Amino acid sequence: MRRLMVFLITLSVFIVGWGGAFFVGTYYGYTNRPAIESVTALYNKEEDKPPTVDFSVFWEAWKVLDEKYVDTNSDNRPAVTDEQKVWGAIQGLTQSLGDPYTVFLPPEEKKQFEDDIAGNFSGVGMEIGIRDGQLTVVAPLPNTPAKKAGILAGDRIIKIDGEETTKMNVNEAVKNIRGPKGEPVTLTIKRGESTEELSITIVRDDIQIPTIDTELLAEGIFVIRLYNFSAPAPDLFRKGLEEFIDSGANKLILDLRGNPGGYLEAAIHISSWFLPDDKTVVVEKKGQVDKETVHKSYGFDVFTDQLKMVVLIDQGSASASEIVAGALRGNGAATLIGQKTFGKGSVQELVSLSGDTSLKVTVARWYTPDGHSISADGLEPDIVVDWTEEDAQAGRDPQLSRAIDYLTTGR
């Protein structure tokens, strides 16, 4: 009997020992499994993963942050959700490309972008972009708080309400500048070559983006001022040309100063009024030689050689404005007067993603008919004329005056 009890005790110890070893081994395997398996709050973690990319370090970092990060922020802000962390990862992915125009749009930013396209929002009324790594005013829109407060094309925005803009992308900056009607926002800027910081407070208002206006000058010169290349722009431009023809004038100034651009189709349509159908408006290049697309004029070309034309440009002329200016000069239809353009010669495509988000992706770059890269350098005018802050304050427009003189004298 004693031998049997000893045997049973020994057997039970063995079983207990074996079970403990099994548990320890299982626990060890569980805690040391691949990091991706320990992230249980997400799904579809490896769907459509590129076959040659090792994502293990990403999941290791995610796991470490989940286990160790402590928020030391003193304002008791809400905890960052897993979904927000995914969005942040995608934003980091787009930022790694070094292209300020390729951006991820979470739901709030996506709605903001859609409001921009609609042309109705509350803010200060200016187009901004990135130039030489610095948040820069492309153009203040006419009759807006930004314009009335003295913001100029080319102003570099250093701070928004005291917050440095060094690490902000365009969408983040727009979000910070926008706000309810009647509330102020303070922009700290640097202007021109000066290192002096200027502080400008602007009261937000509802912004209605204008498209076009026309004027017959006393000198018998007709002016069409085009403020954007929105969807209605081609039809409104055609009506402006009808006014020009009815006026009996044969000298035309197309004013694209401060025009930040818009739709490619609108740029081609407007250029086509002055070009035959075999002429190139713009060349679209996607990086590979076999991915080049040449966009030709529609050939409306209703004007004879009697037409004398000037296009006014400045550092606020961007994107579609640069396409039209480059097309008309490149085909001998117009002379460019003013200042060097902004240099926004890239094509963005808006791609809808799941979760009510989007990617705005640069898919191509623009080249003028003579092969000049718009995004590399912008466009230099044929006749350079500066327009200073002092000119603006005094109500002078030396660029317009020079265009009138050129069309009148031919020099």
Description:
With 411 residues, the chain is an alpha+beta fold. It has 13 helices and 19 strands. It has helices at residues 2-31, 35-38, 56-68, 82-95, 107-118, 145-148, 170-177, 233-247, 264-271, 320-330, 374-377, 389-394, 398-409; strands spanning 103-105, 120-123, 126-131, 134-140, 156-160, 163-164, 184-190, 198-203, 205-208, 212-216, 221-226, 251-255, 280-285, 292-296, 308-313, 335-338, 346-353, 357-367, 383-384. The protein has a six-stranded mixed sheet with strand order 10-11-12-15-16-19, with helices on both faces. Strands 1, 13, 14, 17 and 18 form a five-stranded antiparallel sheet that branches. A four-stranded antiparallel sheet has the order 6-5-7-8, with helices on one face. A hairpin with a 2-residue loop joins strand 3 and strand 4. Helix 8 (233-247) runs parallel beside helix 9 and helix 9 runs parallel beside helix 10. It is globular, with a radius of gyration of 30 Å.
The main sheet comes to:
6 strands, mixed
Distance between the termini: 125 Å
Q: Tally of extended strands?
A: 19
Give the helix tally.
13
Rg on CA atoms, Å: 30 Å
Strand order, sheet with most strands: 10-11-12-15-16-19
Range of helix content:
25-40%
